[in-house]
Write a structure and sequence with these properties.
Blueprint lengths: L9 H22 L6 H10 L28 E15 L18 E2 L3 E11 L4 E12 L6 E12 L4 E14 L3 E15 L2 E14 L8 E18 L2
Antiparallel strand pairs: 1-2, 1-3, 1-9, 3-4, 4-5, 5-6, 6-7, 7-8, 8-9
Length: 238
């Protein structure tokens, strides 16, 4: 999530150079995303008919055992890479940054359009709750060049082979132009498109802490952001 907006150029080129390896990884992974997701294979296996129908079994002969449940198969491991494009609303604008949305230049304003490239890993039941960690790099695409590195805890819940949702709790670290830290919470929805490729939508709330001004010391900048993107996942069962 990007906290500022204004003018600049050199740091923006540096941020794009840092993001290039993640972009390459994202598009390389799309080619490998055509294999079925683990959750699809598990659901297909659990719903497959038994080779011996219980109703037709001879008296005294047990029917063939049913397929193992997802929980009985043990935890699934997932490695993913993704990218989003988003923007946000800044509810406090103490530095009088550009794009105010009202008469008060220090009030509500729009934050910069940004891209966020991230990698993550998580483990848990194929159709249950999965715990993991995510590392993301957000880069402003307009205004003041800004890069934000975010380390997050992720709790994801799958509701079937195509739909899942995740809660993300992170600590964003502003790298440029001025270093600071904040807190961030996000809700993510995922829709599987094909194989390991999913469309994502995220709504997040961030709170950054900045330098003092003549009016306030220190400054607090809350931001509500929305983003859309894609994610490529690589999954494996033990």
């Amino acid at each position: 999530m990007i906290a500022a907006r204004g003018d600049g150029g050199l740091a923006l080129r540096a941020g794009r150079a840092c993001a290039a390896p993640l972009v390459a990884l994202l598009f390389t992974g799309v080619a490998a995303a055509q294999s079925p997701r683990v959750s699809e294979r598990v659901e297909d296996a659990s719903s497959a008919p038994s080779s011996t129908a219980g109703a037709d079994a001879a008296p005294g002969v047990d029917a063939a055992p049913r397929a193992a449940s997802p929980a009985a198969l043990g935890p699934a491991f997932e490695l993913y890479v993704g990218g989003v494009l988003g923007t946000g609303l800044r509810f406090n604008n103490p530095y009088r940054l550009a794009t105010p949305l009202g008469d008060d230049p220090g009030g509500l304003s729009r934050s910069a359009v940004y891209t966020d490239l991230h990698v993550g890993a998580q483990v848990g039941p194929a159709l249950g709750f999965q715990h993991g960690a995510q590392l993301g790099l957000a880069v402003a695409l307009e205004g003041i060049p800004q890069e934000v590195l975010t380390l997050s805890y992720v709790l994801e819940r799958r509701f079937g082979p195509r739909l899942s949702a995740a809660l993300r709790l992170g600590v964003p670290i502003v790298l440029t132009p001025d270093s600071t830290v904040g807190l961030e919470a996000g809700l993510v929805g995922l829709l599987a498109l094909t194989g390991g490729l999913s469309a994502t939508a995220e709504l997040s709330y961030s709170q950054f802490y900045g330098a003092a001004t003549h009016e306030v010391s220190p400054t607090v900048i809350p931001i509500l952001a929305g983003a859309l993107g894609l994610r490529v996942a690589f999954e494996a069962l033990p």
